[in-house]
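INSTRUCTION: Work out how this chain folds

Token vocabulary: learned, describes local backbone geometry

RECORD BEGINS BELOW THIS LINE
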Amino acid sequence: MKRKLYALIFAAGFAGLAVTAWAQAPGHGMHDPLAVLQKIQAKLNLNTSQQQQWDTAVAQSKTAHDAIRANFQQLKTATQAELAKSDPDLAALASLSDQLQQQNIAQRKQARTAWLALYGTFSADQKTTVKDAINARMARMDAFRQRMQNRLSGG
């Protein structure tokens, strides 16, 4: 039971890492999401079938990323248009925001499903590689968070 729970946690983390990598634009302290995924891919030694699934998951992640960005732009444009009116309809904006958020969730879930399907085909060694990559990412995030807390506290 524990083994299945750990596998599920690692798979969810891997899926989150993949989707997050595409959802975030590279910026201050961020690496190119494609480079991060390619670095992990190189260590996995994927077989032909896994490589096809990898390519599909990357494509779905890119599609999700593009759709989420387009939805954000649509909401931004609608917000600007409403705020330009003398009596903006904030309820309409809230409704649009909720609708777009549901679309974004569906896109993320579709990409996550592709990554989890790929993870399900991995050998024990490949899963260890994924686990190590997630742990390294979490350690970098914790170190960054600690540096920011130190800066904010004047330390």
Residues 61 and 111 are 5 Å apart (CA to CA). The chain has one domain: 2-40+67-152. DSSP finds five helices and no strands in the chain.
